Amino acid sequence: MPEIYFKEPEELLQVLTELEEQNLTLVQYSQDVDENLEDVNKRERFIQDKINNNISFLLEHKNMLKVSCEREEEKAAELELRSRLFNFGEFNSDAQEKLIDSLSKKINQVYRVCIGDAEVGSLNAIQKLVKVESRLVELSDLIESIPKENVEAIERIKQKERRQKLREEKMREKQRHQEERLKAALERAVAQPKKKLGRRLIYRSRPHSANKHELLLIGDPRSKSQEEEYFFS
User: Fold this and answer.
1) pLDDT digits 0-9 by tens, 44-91
2) I need a labelling partner for 157 at 20 to 30 A (CA). Which of 19, 108, 184, 219 fits?
3) According to the model, what pLDDT value does residue 85 have?
4) At 195, is the pLDDT very low, low, confident or very high (cuts 50, 70, 90)?
5) 34 or 96: which carries more pLDDT confidence?
6) CA torsion, ordered 121, 126, 128, 133, to nearest 10 deg
7) Buried b (16+ CB within 10 A) or exposed e, 192-210
8) How far apart are CA 28 and CA 43, in angstroms?
9) Nearest to residue 45, comparing CAs of 56, 34, 53?
């Protein structure tokens, strides 16, 4: 007699229900796997785009560094030429000392603006320039990481501040010029009048004309003829 696996019909229904639940569980698991796979694909595309952007940025930075290196090489060649001229004695020692002092002052000013007052006296000029260059590279990288809109907004604010400062300087210069003119006018008004030295000029009458009229006497025949011509003509 064959073996019967189900004694009651409810047992078959229970097995079918369990199989259906397992099937639903597998379907849910499959959907979760698909969603995870989609997330992985999105993350992969995002990482790939980021890598491509970084590669583009590094290539641009490489070109910038190449241009900077060429510029620095030109400066180095110029400095080498100047050093040779110094060695050949074209410039005297006083001119060399003045030039070196001027360059040191300029380097200290740039160092204070970029780095600060720390270690100004303990570093030489080359070390200061190296630190300034490193700081400029850091700031350049920082500017590249800032969104373009923010950089443009900051530039507009700085330009507005520079224009305002220029207007204030012009107003101060104009006010100073007006104060100087007013001061000069007050000094002229307060100053005592200068006394005229020497004799005072006196108006003189006009000298007689050199052409003297010829006087005619009464008995002169010319006067008689003139009278006849005047009265009878």
Assistant:
1) 988 888 888 888 888 888 888 888 888 888 888 777 777 776 665 555
2) 108
3) 65
4) low
5) 34
6) 180
7) eeeeeeeeeeeeeeeeeee
8) 23
9) 53
Closest to 120 in 3D by CA, of 105, 133, 100: 105
For residue 182 the two structure tokens come to 């007013």
Structure tokens at 34: 């698909």
Distance CA 65, CA 68 (A): 5
Residue 29, both tokens: 């698991």
pLDDT for residue 215: 47
Structure tokens of 177?
A: 């010029």
Task: At 146, give phi and psi (nearest 5°).
Answer: -80, 140
With the C-alpha atoms ordered 149, 151, 152, 154, is the resulting torsion angle positive or negative?
A: positive
SS (H, E, C) the chain: CCCCCCCCHHHHHHHHHHHHHHHHHHHHHHHHHHHHHHHHHHHHHHHHHHHHHHHHHHHHHHHHHHHHHHHHHHHHHHHHHHHHHHHCCCCCHHHHHHHHHHHHHHHHHHHHHHCCCCCCCCCCHHHHHHHHHHHHHHHHHHHHHCCHHHHHHHHHHHHHHHHHHHHHHHHHHHHHHHHHHHHHHHHHHHCCCCCCCCCCCCCCCCCCCCCCCCCCCCCCHHHHHHHHHHHHC
**Residue 122 corresponds to which tokens in the numbers above?**
């303990």
Length, in residues, of the chain: 233
Is residue 113 within 8 A of residue 132, CB to CB? The reply is no
114 token code pair: 């970029």
